[in-house]
Amino acid sequence: MKLQNILFLALITIMIYGCNKVESDEFVSKVDVAALKKAMYEYNALTYQYDRETVNKEISKLMIDLKANPTATDKDGHLENVKLLIKRINELDGFSAKLFCYACIKTYPSKSDISIEFKYNNKIIKRQMFVMPAMGKVDDLLHFAGIQMSYDEM
Fold it and tell me: Per residue in 3-52, pLDDT tens?
């Protein structure tokens, strides 16, 4: 009987703490990939202008459940979230993403840098995307902070 109680408590604990993140497919399917590619493609390196609203809207769909989980080694609590975001971006049709650096841009709060590649109009397009924890907001979600030209293209 004691073993059954222990197993039951272990199962409940796993269900409560292990199911915070929803499967990627649910989020990836909600992204308008064509609109995201177009908005990121039209980034103007001279004026730093792009359709920020569209990029933010579509990328935010991939981050809606990515709440902070601070630890002793990760004060911002978003390292695993950034990794999951990259996984989700890689599941978008035609996208390839990798972590350039985590919490490495020393702003407040610090930003993480993700390298992104995608194909648009038969060209390989490269961008850097920045994400950061909420600043002065009630939530503790990861947020879109901007894009720029890839470091390869500067």
Answer: 565 545 554 545 444 444 555 567 788 999 999 999 999 998 888 899 99
Cβ count near 25 (within 10 Å): 10
Provide Rg for the chain, Cα atoms: 18
**Type of residue found at 135:** M
Whether the link from the prior residue into 109 is cis, omega within 30° of 0, is: yes
Q: Which residues pair with 67 in a beta bridge?
A: 141
10 Å Cβ neighbour count for 147? Answer: 21
Of 98, 99, 94, the C-alpha closest to 118 is: 94
**Joined tokens for residue 144:** 């879109």
Neighbours of 89 (CB within 10 A): 22
Give the pTM.
0.80
Task: For residue 146, give the nearest of 122, 119, 116 by alpha carbon.
Answer: 116
> In sequence order, what are the residues at sequence separation of 6 or more whose Cβ sits closer than 8 angstroms to the Cβ of residue 124?
117, 118
